[in-house]
Amino acid sequence: MVNDLISDSLTRIRNAAMRRLDATTLLHSKSVEAVVAILQDKGYIDSYNVLENGVKKSINVVLKYNEAGKTVINEMKRVSKPGRRVYKPAAEIKRFKNGYGTIVVSTSKGVLPNDKAYELGIGGEVLCTVW
Asked: Is the CB of residue 96 less than 8 Å from the CB of residue 102?
């Protein structure tokens, strides 16, 4: 049984990208779906859709590659883990990798990218970083 669905999802995306697969399947939760939606908005993945098999749901993610066939994701890291939660105020999540990266933050307004959370002036739990 998987305890941390976000870590599992990031690892599945990383592994599929290393193997140059077109798509991968993730276990569904609302937080995973929100993280994947942010990845699509920021251009790290091509698309995603939620598949329903009766009661069970899964997310099919289509990966994105550049002209040279290399994945557009350089690095994906899980920051806040079940054993050690990491919280940051709005001032500390302003920029990541000089604006080229994205920090995904779970706030009171939902799961947001760092630029949106800074714009709203709210901090929260840092879920992961992507660049």
From this structure: yes
- What is d(CA 13, CA 84) in angstroms, rounded to the nearest whole number? 23
Distance (Å, whole) CA 128 – CA 106: 10
- HSE at residue 60, side-chain half, CA atoms within 13 A, is 7
Question: Do 41 and 14 meet the contact criterion of CB atoms below 8 Å apart?
Answer: no
Roughly how many angstroms between the first and final C-alpha of the chain, as a whole number?
A: 29
pLDDT of res. 72: 93
56 strand-pairing partners: 53
pTM of the model: 0.92
Domains of the chain, each with CATH number or no CATH: 5-130 (3.30.1490.10)
Are 11 and 4 within 8 A, CB to CB?
Answer: no
